Amino acid sequence: MARKNVLLIVVDQWRADFVPHLMRAAGREPFLRTPNLDRLCREGVTFRNHVTTCVPCGPARASLLTGLYLMNHRAVQNTVPLDARHFNLGKALRGIGYDPALVGYTTTTPDPRATSPRDPRFLGLGDLMDGFRSVGAFEPSMDGYFGWVAQQGFTLPEKREDIWLPDGVDAVPGATALPSRIPHEFSDSAYFTERALTYLKGRNGKPFFLHLGYYRPHPPFVASAPYHAMYAPQDMPAPVRAESPEREAAQHPLLKFYIDSISRGSFFHGAEGSGATLDEADIRQMRATYCGLMTEIDDCLGEVFAYLDETGQWDDTLIIFTSDHGEQLGDHHLLGKIGYFDESFRIPLVIRDPGMRERAGAVDAAFTESIDVMPTILQWLGGDIPPACDGRSLLPLVAGERPADWRTEMHYEYDYRDIFYSRPQDQLGVGMNESSLCVVQDEDYKYVHFAALPPLFFDLKDDPHEFVNRADDPAYAMRVRDYAQKALSWRLVHADRTLTRYRASPQGLHMQEN
């Protein structure tokens, strides 16, 4: 069998409803221009009900690259170590003869039992996941990127992150139409693209696996020229939120905590004040900049796609486009990736299988999850899917064949413990190990179960934006019970099963097929 290539594109903080192909499929005129992503959607299958199984970045990437739910890998927050015993995509690829290259980052904190407490990897949010080979480092502390910028001849300011401040005499921290101080040819998106092309050209046509990561459209929400001015705020969708932060916060104690505590400074360098008090004009401007950062990535992908075209590798390459998580963007008076709303968890997934043209351009409604990416890649390359993997290969869906036992809901989790920043568990009066929630969601209903706080239940047919909690409504009592049972059954079925198919027997070790 001829060797195959895989290009796994993982962007950061890209919401599913900011995919033009999905906008068109829903009958809406796109407000975002992404011709290269559009091409991928036309030639592949786009999944409209796709979620990351957890947030934020470190946990989300752990699930993406191990195929495990948060309840099994337990890297529950950024800076929390990933147990070294867990298998991952990089290690699996090595087992079938691939040297998995990675541009970008995985935000993985190492297992402290496998190294020294003085290991410098414990000084940051995370480092590279074992099994991958970095060919375009970002972590730790973005040194790879900033070193590249300096090598290009650009003089960095004393505080390197100031390159992302708005440029101009009228510049003030916050939502802005001004460009960042770094020219687009030296942006982080340009850096990742240059690193990817350097790697691909070095392969000189030999088979490859490349995880191509991009930092954008992650904040700070300031774009380089000309991307800063590509979109007008008035053309952006308005925020979906209650009439006031106070009205929104009344829904649940965790939501109130975040509305009360989110600061603008985490999204706009140097800005002061609460993120919940952004007015609609600021939110529309923030969204316009967010779109500019997306179009910059799309232009960068065009360079990579052009190289694959020119070298005849386009039709030998499985291409997957996805994100680690979404972004609230002012919806529900929130910023970032937190809580339980769809904006944080629904993400893009596009799969272009060069051998499967029959469904080109299709939008698939099956419920898919980030843990499905690992087994999909392994099956396409002819490898074995690890028995502990919680995800399932999506290749049957790409071919238009939904298995009879496919999942009937989406599932995701969030662990909100924190010790360095906002410490929600202290204010909410819950323990560290009680600071968690899980979600079971289908087309009609959404159930949110908390370990130590009241549950939530939404009727998505009547309340698609999740404003009205029906958990205590007697009319929904039976449904709340049913979905709570679904959540419990889901956790029971997916409890760690690394060794559960093995048996000792009089004939020696026996292994069941499934």
TrEMBL record:
Top-level taxon: Bacteria
Residues covered by the Sulfatase N-terminal domain: 4-382
Keyword annotations of the record: Hydrolase, Metal-binding
Presence of keyword Hydrolase: yes
SUPFAM superfamilies in alphabetical order: Alkaline phosphatase-like
InterPro entries (UniProt xref): Alkaline_phosphatase_core_sf, HdlasePehA, Sulfatase_N
One Pfam family it belongs to: Sulfatase
NCBIfam families, alphabetized: HdlasePehA
Name of the protein in its database record: Arylsulfatase A-like enzyme
